[in-house]
Amino acid sequence: MPAMNQPRNQIAPRGSDCLRTFARASTAAALSLTAVALLGCSRTGGPPLGKVSGVVTLDGQPLADAIVTFAPATGRPSQGMTGSDGRYTLVYTVEQSGAIVGDHVVRISTEGYVERPGGAVEQMKERVPPQYNAQSTLAATVKAGTNDFPFDLLSK
Fold first, then answer.
1. Residues 42, 146: Cα–Cα separation, whole Å
2. Which is it for strands 87-89 and 49-58: parallel, antiparallel or unpaired?
3. Helix (DSSP H) and strand (DSSP E) numbers for the chain
4. Among 24, 28, 71, 118, which residue's CB has the most CB atoms within a 10 Å radius?
5. pTM for the whole thing?
6. Residues pairing with 61 in the sheet
7. Annotation: CATH topology of 49-146
8. Are 71 and 107 spatial neighbours (Cβ–Cβ below 8 Å)?
9. CB half-sphere exposure, 67, CA atoms < 13 A
10. Backbone dihedral angles phi then psi of residue 26, each to the nearest 5 degrees
């Protein structure tokens, strides 16, 4: 409310200046938050990736329901799950396929839980020998572009 001894037009500019300052600060904050959100969701950033897929067999038969993990020396590992035909495709993030370009230790395991159609959850036992998972001797070098890595495992 304006003071009685001051004309209205002297108080209005102060209020307008305050509103303009608030509007500028609000706009700057909104732009900053938008920039942070866009950078955080950027699909173009991050390490270079190569597309990776292949087939896993155990004793000559397709190995279904196995988790294939490519673990680089540094950075996030990529994973994929084999289908009934033994075929897998690696995923780096929910939105990105592939694996980091470079050398990886590869681990293949069937131990874990699998959700079946209808929602039933089944505990899977390890069918793969330790030299392919916990004590893996498998390695792969991912290159830019498309990579096909078949793994022919032996149970003995």
1. 22
2. antiparallel
3. 1, 12
4. 71
5. 0.69
6. 58
7. Immunoglobulin-like (2.60.40)
8. yes
9. 16
10. -65, -45
Count of other CB atoms within 10 angstroms of residue 77 = 16
Beta bridge partners of 106: 70, 138
- Dist CA 39 CA 45 (whole Å): 8
The domains of the chain are located at: 1-42, 49-146
Question: What whole-number distance in Å separates Cα of residue 75 and Cα of residue 15?
Answer: 53
Token pair for 107: 């681990």
Burial pattern 34-51, b for ≥16 Cβ within 10 A else e, equals eeeeeeeeeeeeeeebbb
Pairing status of strand 61-62 against strand 49-58 = antiparallel
Q: Quote the longest CA-to-CA distance of the chain.
A: 99
Angstrom CA distances, 11 to 23, 43, 114, 125, 143, stand at 19, 50, 70, 78, 68
In three-state secondary structure terms, 42 is: coil
pLDDT by residue for the chain (156 residues), tens only, comes to 555 554 444 444 444 444 444 444 444 444 443 333 333 444 467 899 999 999 999 999 999 999 999 999 999 999 999 999 999 999 999 999 999 999 999 999 999 887 888 989 988 899 999 999 999 999 999 999 999 999 999 998
